[in-house]
Amino acid sequence: MKNITQTPKTHYLNTPFIDGFTEIEKENTEITIGNSNKIDDIFYTTDEQSEYIKCLCSLIPKTEFRNVNVTMRYRATTNEDDRELIKSFRPYSGENIRMNGFISELTVRFRELLPSETPETPIKSEWTKFLKTNPEIYTKIFRKQEVDAEIESMVDSEYSTSDILHVKSKCHFFAGSYYSGIKLSDIQQYLFYVGTTFQAQEYINIISAKELVSSKVASPGPNVTLQSLSTLEDDIYDGKIEINFPDETKYHSVSITKTTIVSDIVQILFKREV
Fold first, then answer.
1. Alpha-carbon distance 226 to 213, whole Å?
2. Each residue of 126-150: b (16+ CB within 10 Å) or e?
3. Fewer Cβ in 10 A, N or C end of the chain?
4. How far apart are the C-alpha atoms of 176 and 213, rounded to whole Å?
């Protein structure tokens, strides 16, 4: 019987494989199966500039607040003939809100460029000199109450309807949070709101950006947007920290890590712009 040789067929098209997949140059082709011996290093690159650099930085807080006055007008009862009451607060005086752990700005200050893990791409000494001369690479400015203001309040729906009116305002910018040992995710914007509780007792409360976004405790004011509530981590992961070296090489922030408990030292990873 005559032998019949069948051409391999693809599963989907039922047609022969393309010649390019069957003709392999044996002498010039090297196929590696399994783990590569090449070092798995994100700092590795084939040219003279690292694709990634890592900076050791300090976080330097600043506390500057104006002694502003905010006023709330309200009625204590549903009787429209009752006189309107006025209550004033000084948010930054420390009388109603403890100011420990609240800041107006947070500066990221360069300390050291960490060396690349591969000798193929050494860090340029000119870059280190440039950063030491210009160490403040970013400042996170937190929003705050800058001027005296009258805060509008509305009936607080959390309380049941009665002859006594309970009111609450929307949220307004207060300060940022920072203290020794704070988690990176907790460095965020804080806001304040005013209102009255049982027996028309006046109060001023603060709320974090995270709580404002995730809960219904209070409503954001007209100037409070999601972008204005960004944390330091948000800014870094969004690439808002940029380093522009004199040789026109540019890097933008990628991530930040902090493993210490009481130190203000962090590591920030930057990626080169192509």
1. 8
2. ebeebbeeeeebbebebbbbeeeee
3. N
4. 16
Strand spans (E) along 4-146:
52-62, 70-74, 85-89, 102-103, 105-114, 136-141
Rounded CA-CA distance 234/107 in Å is 15
Instruction: Give 162: exposed, middle or buried? Use CB within 10 Å, 0-12, 13-18, 19+.
Output: exposed
How many angstroms separate the CA atoms of 56 and 232, rounded?
Answer: 16
Which of 273, 245, 274, 269 has the alpha carbon at shortest distance from 116? 269
* Amino acid in position 199: Q
pLDDT in tens, 81-130: 678 889 999 999 999 999 999 999 999 999 999 876 655 566 788 999 99
For residue 78, which amino acid is it? T
From residue 104, alpha-carbon distances to 99, 130, 202, 205 in Å are 11, 27, 26, 18
The token duo for 92 is 């930054």
Question: Distance of alpha carbon 8 from its chain centroid, rounded?
Answer: 56
